[in-house]
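Let's practice the habit of predicting before peeking. Look at the sequence and jot down your guess about where helices and strands might fall. Then scroll down.
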Amino acid sequence: MRGQVSTTTRSEALQRITNRKDCPSLLDCESAVTHEYFKRICGTRGYVRCHHYARRMGELKAPMAWLQHQAMYEAVKNAEDQQPQSPIAVK
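Done guessing? Here is the structure:
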């Protein structure tokens, strides 16, 4: 290796050290494109328009389980907000 120029990028070096695998291109990514993926990978400042790229590549899919979970969460949250608060006993 002595005398050879390293072509490893900073990102690749950090991935190797932390034993993580990021997907710079969605076509090379093995994991399914889900809300969790976009929240974790594309939610950073460097990937502001990541969902537009995924849509162009045909990789943006609406994960039904996540959508159902969100709908149930919103319904429960709205129901809790509409319940009257019990008065606090004052001594």
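How did you do? The chain is about 45% helix and 0% strand.
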